[in-house]
Fold:
Amino acid sequence: MSKPIILHIGEPIKYNQDYYDNEFCKRFRVVRNECLDRASFIQALKEKKFGDFSAIYRPHFQTGGEMGDWNEELITLLPSSVRIFASAGAGFNWADVDALGRRKIWYANGAGASDEAVSDTGLYMILSVFRNFTRSQLAARTCDPDQFNATHKLIATISANPRGHVLGIVGLGNISKKLAYKAKTALGMKIHYYDVVRASDEEEIKLDATFHSSLNELLAVADCVSLHTPLNAHTQDLISTEAFAAMKHGSRLINTARGPVVNEEALIKALKSGKVSAAGLDVHYHEPQVSKELATMENVTLTTHIAGGALNTRINFELNAMKNIMAVVGDKGGFIGEPLTPVNKKAFQSASA
Structure:
């Protein structure tokens, strides 16, 4: 009996060779994509170059995107045999996951693998925006004694401890729950949140978290706002002029989600006016281009989309994508279950069989 085919896009396995050889390849035949631009990839799908494959496997989020966005143009060309698209990475704004669901194709991301790293980065950002660590680092790196002394004196007059302040979380998912726990336990912060779906009583009690039924209601009480929402049509420019107007004067903003969730021009105005006293951005609107104006601001902490960038994250992204396929695709290529980290469950379940 022939094995189900898996279409592997992007670079080869790097970290989980034993599992790949002894578990994954024992059940599946893996075919690598060598069509490294959109036009040739589309042609390959039309010609059924990869056969009737059962899954798409993308183990590394920094490779495997050579065909561009997975929109209707690509999705309609997939064979009916496809059961799941399993990808590394937490974000999925480059894939129309609902369109996949309508075709009865699961989309599973790397949720969970990066939770620890991203929540740790959020904790670093909280400390940085409250204590003005970036301003201090920049002054120290000048190696100028006058700058050193001036900044040493200034920092103590403009900084605060996070303890007792309200951390306002937008989107209470697995990552932000970890961040909330760490900020509450280690820093003594008060946890408030807004989400379209309210958490259970048990989760709210565990985090001692206060729910707000609207975004502006949360923004009005938060001393520091941390963003944890996926990027989609509803969340692009979510934090813009209206949102900044709703914030407390002197509040702080952290974004480890996706750059376009925050309108950078509105953020720059809010920083200049003092409405926002500091910001921490791991992601950027026109990434990898960082705003040159934000880069000049000493009260803005900037990093290069590395919130999840730990080796542990990479290892588990690669492994969990395989495990998602193993959970869904049987020996004969049919469905045997649901993925471990489904993203498009609602669209998948609503689609006709």
The chain has a mean pLDDT of 96. The two ends are 26 Å apart (CA to CA).
